[in-house]
């Protein structure tokens, strides 16, 4: 029965109402079927750090392609257009050596040649998503200064830190494509009730702020993926079940 239901689910994607801002930063890894647990009433868009949409997918949820780094850039233009994308995301943490790690000058050249032309098709362009470190803000400032004539419709930002007040102070139109409270990271231990409660309170506070703030267009909690270590902020546990955070974010 389960096999038959799952096969039918692949053929007939789920449909649900949604919050126009709330999205999923989804890491499909080896469990792409986990997307079905997001079939609540809250999430309207999804991205997966890739130009290719996750499969299976959920009907009615916008997929936003991302050009993560320099690989595969030649096909990004045609891929975004053929997918009828309305929004795309630029490079992922280009200021950080362990992520896409792209010098500003190189990023400007690639943006002009392979991303900016999408604007002529009516596709909205999200800036490279830098880290919340000082180096990230400097990288983005240099990029915007050097990329003369470039289109950037909204700023994509990441934030990792402590406390809702600090998050709100950090945040033109922005998409917060990764955010969580690192103060409550369980540090290799199984999350305690105190940790869950603290994280959930943070989530509720900052989501309420972003939902009520016009210049925050969209946001996605980091991350919608299974826990590979006892990381309290993940929205799925090791068995693919929604954690308390996932339950509130998806169905709240």
UniProtKB/TrEMBL annotation:
Q: Which UniProt keywords apply?
A: Signal
Q: Decide whether keyword Transmembrane is in the record.
A: no
Q: GO terms for biological process?
A: fungal-type cell wall polysaccharide metabolic process
Q: Which cellular component terms (GO) are annotated to the entry?
A: fungal-type cell wall
Q: Does the keyword Signal apply?
A: yes
A Pfam entry, by short name: Glyco_hydro_cc
List each copy of the Asl1-like glycosyl hydrolase catalytic domain by range: 23-249
- Annotated signal peptide: 1-17
Name of the protein: Asl1-like glycosyl hydrolase catalytic domain-containing protein
């Amino acid at each position: 029965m389960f096999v038959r239901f799952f096969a039918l689910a692949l053929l007939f994607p789920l449909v649900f109402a949604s919050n126009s801002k709330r999205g999923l930063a989804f890491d499909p890894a080896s469990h792409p079927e986990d997307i079905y647990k997001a079939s609540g009433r809250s999430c309207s868009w999804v991205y997966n750090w890739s130009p290719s949409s996750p499969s299976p997918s959920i009907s009615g949820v916008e997929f936003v392609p991302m050009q993560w780094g320099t690989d595969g850039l030649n096909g990004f233009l045609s891929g975004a257009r053929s997918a009828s994308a309305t929004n795309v995301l630029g490079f992922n943490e280009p200021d950080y050596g362990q992520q896409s790690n792209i010098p500003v000058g190189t990023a400007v050249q690639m943006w002009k040649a392979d991303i900016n032309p999408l604007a002529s098709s009516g596709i909205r362009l999200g800036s490279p998503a830098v880290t919340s470190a000082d180096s990230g803000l400097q990288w983005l400032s240099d990029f915007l200064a050097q990329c003369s004539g470039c289109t950037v419709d909204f700023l994509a930002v990441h934030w990792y830190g402590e406390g809702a007040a600090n998050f709100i102070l950090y945040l033109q139109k922005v998409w917060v494509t990764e955010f969580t409270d690192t103060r409550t990271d369980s540090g290799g231990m199984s999350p305690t009730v105190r940790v869950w409660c603290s994280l959930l309170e943070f989530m509720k506070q900052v989501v309420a702020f972003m939902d009520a703030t016009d210049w925050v267009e969209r946001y996605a909690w980091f991350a919608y993926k299974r826990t590979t270590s006892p990381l309290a902020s993940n929205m799925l546990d090791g068995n693919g079940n929604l954690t308390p955070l996932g339950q509130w974010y998806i169905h709240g």
